[in-house]
Amino acid sequence: MALMPSPSVAVRTPAHRFLLVLLLAQIACSGLYASDSDTGAFQKDGERQFEEGRILLDATTLTAARNSFAQCARQDPNNSRCFVDLARTEYYLVKVENIARHTDASRKMLDNAVADAQKAVALNDRSAEAHAVLADLYGAKITGMMSGMKFGPKASAETQRALQLDPNDALAYAVQGRKYLFSPGAFGGDVDKAIESFKHAVALDQHSDEDFVWLAKAYHKKGDAALEKEALAQALRLSPRSVFAQRVQSGQE
Question: Is residue 59 one of the residues assigned to a domain?
Fold first, then answer.
């Protein structure tokens, strides 16, 4: 028995009207569920591609991840998570492009990453991760004194906002560590504070191979070869294929 009357037949009774409304609601909901399912699939594919690309610093795999997250953002333009992942992937592509010395492409990709992270924050100001990613990207924009004066305070504000929202956000501590590691002393640089920040990050996320590499780099700057070697060994235990760890171990970074 058909629930929906043909276009030529009027809906004559309250029961018919109720059934018609129910059917239309079911159709609408089924479309939403399909959309949510598609978005989840794009996120899942992107996360898998990102992790592989992150470890290998492989442009092809990272580009595939970027495409997945971009599709996620198109499918669900109000999903902050999609834009956080997109910005984060674009930042890794910047690192790959820098290795390939494509500086113009790197600058453009970094600008895209900043814009996507800003979009993520606008969609969900309560996301500590979104603020931490944006802070990291602002830090990456610093190439000298003038850019430091412009982006340094922005990076600090976003880091503090991330820690305010989640005092146990490992990424925020890693971002803070990079600030202390790379800033001149006159602008708050402090290798001991960098070490403490990275130690806090790895304590919160003991599976982050990259944070152990950053801790190793901080120990290297401190001149503590034994602890540098220990942190780097832990990074390689967690991710033996990590190009970042291998480059630092060989002295290329």
Answer: yes
Asked whether 208 and 224 are in contact (CB, 8 A), the reply is no
Q: What is the pTM of this model?
A: 0.84
Instruction: Please say whether the beta carbons of 54 and 92 come within 8 A.
Output: yes
- pLDDT (tens digit, 9 = 90+) per residue, 45-76? 999 999 999 999 999 999 999 999 999 999 99
How close are the terminal C-alpha atoms of the chain, in Å? Answer: 72
Give percent of the chain with pLDDT exceeding 90.
Answer: 77
Domain that holds residue 64: 23-124
What is the CATH number for 51?
1.25.40
Provide the CB-side half-sphere exposure for 90 (13 A, CA): 27
What is the tally of structural domains in the chain? 1
